[in-house]
Design a protein that fits this description.
Length: 428
């Protein structure tokens, strides 16, 4: 029993102590502190032949996380569209967990895959979004000029501190008015007011050309971007409100090629060594240069045509037909019966058939007879005018836009990239 009494005594003591002191609520222990895992950030470009799966595995992510990431991305973006050379950024923990992955889809959007540290791998806890880049857009102006050091539109625009894309956009606007292969000469100038976007302080892309005033071969031409309130669609007009869109483009090539042989009823043939008619215009250009349809039409044929090599033959309204000879390749979907739109790619420059070098032999036929393409393009009628009922509105907007262009050029003149111009000069 002594042992039992000792037990009771101890129990009684415990009870007395418990009753003699008020019960205190339990004190909360120290809060859990979540320490961030150590991470590394990789910024690079997608290598050739990579897939999203192989790209993530190359950075030692856990297998189950790679599968989760690809599955999450597939809900908002086709992983097969990952392209070599595009930049990406990946943040991973040192134990192989994905914290963040960003891939630049294009100049406007990026894919973002984010991980949740608290979720175990393989639970599908990754989320993917396609998000727009944050950009800052401003309207700026430049004054570019043709001279001995800058004999082409591209060189002139680059000399003013901008890129080839802006030159291409300007050439497209005036494609029915100016042949940029043959008409440029020293002293010609190009004044542009255009939208320009930056991302994180660096150039991103160009928006619309708002207005342009150019002087080419003694002619002064304007292009004013105006939205017709009746249709809601923007288009380009001259200062009198006539559309700059013409039936024909001035050339079936973009620019920088040159005319190497003109239309003639008696030309010495360099291969046959005899005088014969040359029923088109030859444009010298590198193999692979894009050839475009000069007008809306239908493909009559696309195939090999003896000395003309690979040839595309188009039929247009008004009794016109056009021919594009010596092509190295045909454009997508170019086959007999296909409809084409003005400016659509129909092939690539080559030297198939009888040719001494890469060039495009471009021909125009009207009502069954071949005619000089340069003359036909030069005699085009002006574009459709804005309806009289809306001309007053256009003129108000025109005057405001031209004043804005003048003011912007005056403001930009002191800051127009002297370093870029000097660098171009040093290359000469």
């Amino acid at each position: 029993m002594p042992h039992r009494g000792g037990f009771l005594l101890a129990a009684g003591t415990l009870v007395l102590v418990s009753c003699g002191r008020p019960e205190e609520p339990p004190r909360p222990g120290p809060a859990d502190v979540r320490l961030p895992r150590e991470t590394e950030t990789i910024e690079a470009t997608v290598p050739r032949h990579a897939t999203l799966d192989s790209l993530l595995r190359a950075h030692r992510l856990r297998d189950e996380l790679v599968a989760d990431a690809v599955a999450a991305a597939a809900l908002v973006f086709n992983p097969r569209h990952i392209r070599a050379g595009r930049p990406y950024r990946l943040v991973r923990s040192l134990d192989g967990l994905l914290r963040e992955f960003e891939y630049e889809i294009d100049a406007d959007r990026f894919l973002r895959i984010a991980g949740d540290d608290a979720a175990p791998p393989g639970t599908g806890a990754l989320t993917a979004q396609v998000l727009p880049f944050e950009k800052q857009t401003s309207v700026v102006a430049i004054d570019a000029r043709i001279d001995r050091r800058r004999p082409s539109l591209i060189a002139a625009i680059e000399g003013a501190g901008e890129s080839v894309q802006l030159a291409l956009d300007l050439a497209e606007i005036f494609s029915g008015e100016v042949d940029f292969q043959t008409e440029l000469q020293p002293g010609d100038s190009f004044k542009l007011l255009f939208e320009k976007s930056t991302r994180e302080g660096r150039f991103s892309n160009y928006g619309a050309i708002v207005g342009a005033s150019i002087a080419v071969a003694g002619r002064s031409l304007q292009a004013l971007r105006w939205t017709d309130p009746a249709t809601g669609k923007p288009s380009y007009y001259d200062e009198q409100g006539r559309s700059l869109k013409r039936f024909f483009l001035k050339s079936p090539l973009k620019f920088d090629p040159r005319i190497t042989s003109r239309f003639s009823m008696r030309r010495f043939h360099p291969i046959d060594r005899v005088f014969k008619a040359h029923l088109g215009v030859d444009y010298g250009a590198p193999v692979g240069s894009a050839v475009v349809a000069v007008a809306h039409g239908v493909v009559v044929s696309a195939g090999f045509s003896g000395g003309g090599g690979n040839t595309v033959h188009l039929r247009h309204a008004g009794g016109f037909e056009t021919y594009y000879l010596h092509l190295s390749a045909y454009g997508p979907g170019i086959r007999g019966g296909a409809h084409v739109t003005q400016g659509q790619s129909i092939g690539r420059v080559g030297m198939t058939g009888s040719a001494t070098g890469p060039h495009l032999d471009y021909r125009v036929k009207r009502n069954g007879a071949f005619v000089n393409p340069v003359s036909v393009h030069a005699r085009q009628a002006p574009g459709e005018p804005i309806p009289a009922a809306r001309l007053a509105s256009f003129f108000v907007d025109r005057d405001a836009l031209l004043s804005r262009l003048t003011a912007a050029l005056l403001a930009e003149a002191p800051r127009q990239k002297p370093d870029a111009i000097a660098a171009a000069d040093r290359k000469q």
